[in-house]
Amino acid sequence: MSSTTPIHRAPDSPAARQALALAGVFQAASLVDELAKTGQVDTRAWETLINATVDTNPESFEAIYGGHPNNLRRGLETLEALVGRKQANPVVLRYGFSLLLLMNKLRSDRTMMDILGQKLSHIQGQAEHFGATHENVVASLGEAYQETLSTFKTRIVVQGDPSLLQTRMMPERVRACLMAGIRFALLWHQQGGRRWKLVFQRKALRRALDSLG
């Protein structure tokens, strides 16, 4: 996070905190789609996701996403589509909901949670040495995803340009994004987020998005 970025205190509203965490999930989904189809990615959105994933012990809720909701702008825009205010990208929505499903699978497997926690602690040490977005760190995140979450029967199949998906570091970058999505999905659940609320409490989500600007 840049030292010039003002810290915006996270809202006290549980719905607004859930919305921010959910924005992280859908930002990851959006970047996976962008990487798979173009090979490029929005730098600010990418760095926010990776920083959040390697920081296993953030000092505050807002520190997770770099202190400003605009760091999750891509994800917030996808949530606007989810509540019907904008045109939705069906592929991004599918990835996002798949990440929530995969997070629930992970939560029910305590052994896998412990293994993943150990891997992320090791990766945090790497990030402190090389920098969070260094390719060694990204490769480790991708490998951690492949060795844990990719082993579940519920898997996320990424669609895109096959030639792009086979280029150097692309599989690792895509998996690192998916790992970030899981990180924010767990945060969403910790803040009281549940899938049924996305169906039955859309008005609350709309109000939360309004409060975040």
Report on this model:
With 213 residues, this protein is mostly helical. The protein is built from 11 helices and no strands. The radius of gyration is 16 Å and the shape is globular. The two termini are 21 Å apart.
List keywords for this structure.
213 residues; mainly alpha; 11 helices; 68% helix; globular; disordered N terminus
In brief, what are we looking at here?
With 213 residues, the chain is mostly helical. The protein has helices spanning 14-38, 43-54, 61-64, 73-82, 90-107, 110-130, 135-147, 162-165, 170-190, 195-200, 202-211.
Describe the global form: globular
Number of helices: 11
Structural class: mainly alpha
Order of helices and strands: HHHHHHHHHHH
| Count of distinct strands | 0
List the uncertain runs.
1-5
Ordered list of secondary-structure elements with their pairings:
Layout: H1 14-38, H2 43-54, H3 61-64, H4 73-82, H5 90-107, H6 110-130, H7 135-147, H8 162-165, H9 170-190, H10 195-200, H11 202-211
Helix pairs in contact: 1-4, 1-5, 1-9, 1-11, 2-9, 5-9, 6-7, 7-9
